[in-house]
Specification:
Blueprint: E1 9-14, H1 18-21, H2 28-37, H3 40-53, E2 57-61, E3 110-111, H4 126-132, E4 137-143, H5 145-158, E5 162-171, H6 175-185, E6 192-194, H7 196-204
Parallel strand pairs: 1-2, 1-4, 2-3, 4-5, 5-6
């Protein structure tokens, strides 16, 4: 089990939006089964609370707050946007683009620039923020397992970070997506795969 130097470790929380994690969110019908069965919000909250208690830097890596017309003239359009160029999930100025009420940022947390597609690192200042805070270990939780979570974790490894995935702190559209991430993808490139309780135990040992 990995050990963490708290001052060089950051919790990266990806896309904890109401549209994903709250009832009446636009994507809630798709993720409800995995989020509820996996106690995802509660597990993320536990990790978030422990990280702050142990002075681990919390960094939010949110998706772009979309506006109508954002994707109309894209040369290559991502199929993850539900096949529509009028994609308005996490729409700017709406409740759906706000963070889940139990996972709100507090003073001292960092919020990286919004990512347009999947990786929290691509075309954002996330890597810069981590380097400026002398971070070399990152802990990843959030949404969605096989897209933004997987892409951010892979990119983090490529950039030279030690990457831990909180396996019960991620949700997806179905259990197969989570299994693909946790059982097949991440073990082939990531460094540490822990449950929320296992990670917290490493901080308190």
């Amino acid at each position: 089990m990995s050990t963490y130097q708290n001052k060089r470790t950051a919790l990266i929380l990806i896309d904890p939006f109401n549209d994903f994690l709250s009832e009446n969110g636009k994507l809630w019908p798709f993720v409800k089964e995995t989020v509820e069965s996996g106690n995802v919000v509660a597990n993320i909250k536990k990790v978030l609370t422990a990280a702050r208690k142990h002075k681990i830097q919390v960094v939010y890596a949110p998706h772009r707050h979309t506006q109508k017309g954002d994707y109309l003239n894209w040369k290559f359009f991502s199929p993850s946007h539900n096949g529509t160029k009028n994609f308005t999930v996490f729409e700017k100025g709406t409740w759906g683009a706000e963070f889940h009420p139990e996972l709100l940022a507090v003073e001292g947390d960092l919020i990286a620039q919004n990512h347009w597609t999947a990786s929290g690192f691509a075309n954002t200042d996330l890597d810069f923020l981590l380097k400026m805070h002398d971070i070399d270990h990152i802990i990843i939780a959030g949404m969605r397992a096989n897209t933004c979570v997987d892409s951010t974790a892979r990119y983090g490894v490529e950039l030279g970070y030690h990457v831990t995935l909180i396996k019960d702190g991620i949700g997806a559209f179905n259990q197969e997506e989570i299994r693909a991430t946790v059982e097949t993808n991440f073990p082939n490139y990531g460094h540490s795969l822990l449950s929320a309780d296992e990670f917290i135990k490493t901080l308190e040992s």
